């Protein structure tokens, strides 16, 4: 009898025979006490009495897959005599149970450098039915195409694997809607929450947004020489950046600002390398090169080659006679170094 049979259904169980006649013959039937069936006595046109089982309460194969009942036939003699029959009722399965996941919500963490094919989650569902009604296949519910391309689920085992590379900077987590479907079409759902863990896979990026070059050598301390932007898309310590300046230069951060006076005559240009280092393990770095030309300021007076020149001159020297050649130089450049005597 199928477990979905409605209460009130009747089942004939045959006729008992009694060779006696009259009141000594078969008079009725009794059924062993149980929670599902009752017995009713019916009389056929020829006067024989037969038994019908009447279903009083719905069956449940998952609770009781079979019933063993004793049916007793009684005559009307004194003393009465009886005969019994064993009734074996097998309750057949109906797809009245949907699959049930072991957990409503599954959680997993995955490094963003996890290789394609890595196991993300193992989901599991069971079904109290039997046969094809209990055969479960797994799949994804309705989700964005981006997520469906990222993950795959094994229809038989429920194992979810990674299909495309992860990127923490693009997505820090995913929510998966996983379905379990039995052979009768009933469906259960659970959620899988995937946390993407940051890996130090990005080097700091150093961008010079403003460079003042050339710089006048008499520019005062505090003059802004360059503006820079340092960015690292990683998170936590992986995104914490410190900077250092390679090259002897009178500068400081985060604006490149003069911290002491320049001297074009000593350094006509500054060749600098700016290095940004993050806090990852191992750390990653980014660099930017900077060339700052120093323009001349008239900060040097002319200097004679000698402090004192001496010469001898005959008294009959004619007008136009060369008496001395004096020479001076100026460490400045351009017009600042042009000397007149």
TrEMBL record:
Lineage: superkingdom: Eukaryota
GO cellular component: plasma membrane
Listed Pfam families: Cadherin
Protein topology in the membrane: Single-pass type I membrane protein
Gene Ontology BP terms: homophilic cell adhesion via plasma membrane adhesion molecules
Protein known as: PCDGE protein
Gene behind this protein: Pcdhgb2
Subcellular location: Cell membrane
Domain Cadherin per the UniProt entry, residue ranges: 1-101, 102-206, 207-304
Keyword Phosphoprotein: no
Keywords, sorted A to Z: Calcium, Cell adhesion, Cell membrane, Glycoprotein, Membrane, Repeat, Signal, Transmembrane, Transmembrane helix
Organism in which the protein naturally occurs: Caloenas nicobarica (Nicobar pigeon)
Main location: membrane
GO molecular function, one term: calcium ion binding
